[in-house]
User: Fold these one by one.
Assistant:
Number 1:
Amino acid sequence: MPAEVLVVGSGNAALCAAIAAAGVGARVTVLEAGGDEHFGGNSRYTAGAMRFAYPDGDAIRALLGGCDDPRIADSDFGAYPREQFAADLKRGDPDPTLDPLQRKLVDTSYETVAWLVDAGLPVEPIYARQSFVRDGRHRFWGGLTLAARGEGEGLVQAERAIAERGGTEIRTGCRVVELLGDAERVSGVRLEGGETLRGDAVVLASGGFEADASLRAEHLGPEWRAAVVRGTPLNRGDGLRMALGIGAARAGDFSACHAVCMDVATPSFADSPIPHRARKDFRKISYPFGVMLNARGERFVDEGADFRNYTYAQYGREVLRQPGGFAWQLFDAQVTELLYAEYDMPGATRVEADRLDVLARRLEGVDADAALTTLEAYNASVRGDRPFDPTRKDGCATTGLALPKSHWALPLSEPPFCAYRVTCGVTFTYGGLRVDPDAAVLRDDGRAIPGLYAAGELVGGLFRHTYPGGSGLCAGAVFGRAAGRAAAGV
Ligand SMILES: Cc1cc2nc3c(=O)[nH]c(=O)nc-3n(C[C@H](O)[C@H](O)[C@H](O)COP(=O)(O)OP(=O)(O)OC[C@H]3O[C@@H](n4cnc5c(N)ncnc54)[C@H](O)[C@@H]3O)c2cc1C
């Protein structure tokens, strides 16, 4: 008899679990709480970018068989060794040792993406966001090189098609509210409305708790009630609650999350009629090329501490900590062509001026005199002794400021000057369930709960002090695949 596997959620982690379980002969049912409009969860809102370790450009080209972009011939994909991925995961962590889950993520990241590509997921280089043209070549930077064709929408639709071809049944409008069984054995689920479904194993891939304002306030702090939710309104911590309710153990830092700078005009998804695809264009993460000011007219982070891939997930929190929970990002004409396309989005909160003092007065909610003083001090502190280069950490730094800018520091000197008002958008939460490297959910005593697996945002502890951009989808694929195989009994 084939194993009966129930998968909760329909995002990247869930679909990878379904593909893997069906691939080894299990009968798989995917249960998604939302209707078709919410199919794919947060995964659908992504850029589809996946971080994985690779030794050289040939390893990238091996994944691009289905991509005929003529720029590939003129691309320098560089390398992203495992050691670098490991170091990026551990940035800011006093203990540099990878735990077993992080080790699995790093070591199997490439083979997992190759597995998806083999199964039929088309991928392509991320030219617009992760490369700059230098000496006639597209030079990639930041360890993030490929994305699913069609971004998040393309990712989940391709994964859905692969899963359905493999025989997976997909049911939407099925919110799972209870696990059948206990810490000795899980044998199915109960849906809202009372229907019960029996199975040999359940894979929870129902996301974190970022969309629930009360859980955010409880774990992240009261100010997080006001954060904009970037993704689906349906990641309300259901999987976490159900698993903890039968004795699963927690892992990771429940007070930490992935949060980015978003335009203040961004409505939370929960209240927003904006369709899936338009949403992510509200993100504002080109701050390494400018400065950020708070209501007191002060800078509050080193905007150029690192590539934005390694700071963007932390800087949303820093913005929320500022008075009023907002900031302005300022740029001059030298860098406007480097700003991501979302800066041009209609409806963005943008002001412009030909003089800095005029711009400072246009920054709503900001002490204009203090802002001008900060900008003048910043401009005077830019060393200007090295060439500006956005493809590497260029060492273009300030000198003499209490809060330095470490890279990409140019004076704001060329009009027109422009500024964008941003707030904090929460992406996903870091605290979750404790699992082993096969994605089995563990109890406090370290034993696995038979029949229960978890993958994706719901897994705790993978990300702590930092989040290297593109790791979420890759982790969901790695542990989704592991969960599917283990749930099918392989
Ligand atoms: C705007 C945005 C852009 C991003 N860009 C990237 C990127 O480019 N690269 C990257 O790696 N990461 C990115 N991320 C992070 C990424 O979205 C997550 O790491 C990843 O999608 C998580 O996948 P998942 O399968 O765990 O959860 P999700 O994709 O969120 O899926 C969870 C699903 O579970 C469903 N669900 C919840 N409760 C229940 C229940 N009780 N019963 C049944 N179903 C339930 C939800 O409706 C949802 O469909 C981005 C996130 C956002 C919001």
Number 2:
Amino acid sequence: MGSTAPTQLTTNYHMHSRFCDGQGEIAEYVQQAVALGFTSIGISSHAPVPFPNTYAMLPDQLADYVAEVRRLQAEYAGQIAIALGAEIDVIPGLQDYYTATLLPHDFDYFIGSVHFVGNDPHNGLPWEFDAGLDNFLRGLNDWYEGDFRRLAEDYYALARLVPHFLPGVAIVGHMDRIKKYNTVYPCFSEDDAWYRDAVEATLRTYADAHIIVELNTAGWRQPIAEAYPSPWIVARCFALGIRMTIDTDAHHPTYLAADHPRALALLRAVGYRDLWVRRADTWLAEPLPE
Ligand SMILES: [Zn+2]
Ligand SMILES: [Zn+2]
């Protein structure tokens, strides 16, 4: 701890780069983080997956990715702590693939996220529900026959798998991502009892697992215009004693502190007084900045 209490957030564990669907070199994210006065960050490109896609790191890039983060850890030692992470997709059946490809690299942590629900019956590939409105509507209206409740309940069943999906999953990514298009194509109300029940069951899983849930500010930059998760869910997280951190899901270095004040205000408003961060290779709670 420094001699003065921090006045702003100095951590962020969710950021991409040109290794996956982000822009910029990892070194540029690190330089920007240092310029912002950050003390602890995690690099979290989308881990390779064994099917065609447009967002994830290519399998033959993984070794270079790991080497680049390790190189920067050494170069910036004493200035900023850099954790080697990856955002993994919670897709049943992929555990063996991840175990073989990721675990040998001794990652510091994983973010577990659900971007896929079931398979596209037309090609048999995992269906990426959040990859554009047209793609979302194709799945919703085609094989879900317009039944958003069934889709959302399938989504949250997958979300409940996050904590134990792979050793090293420390953070739940954007836990209510399924709401992404609900302003441009309204499907449901977050006040619907069935929706609240699905969220509540998921949160209880996270509380039991002592996993960290991120307050992901990316939603504030998207049409949904709301953080992931929504404020009422953040309030339920507090009531259930769930550990939270604040991440920005930056796909460009300029977003490393995006909406930090707003996120801090939200955590404070629901009662949080501390935040989970990574210090000396351990996740621990620290007082929220003033
Ligand atoms: Zn994600
Ligand atoms: Zn991400």
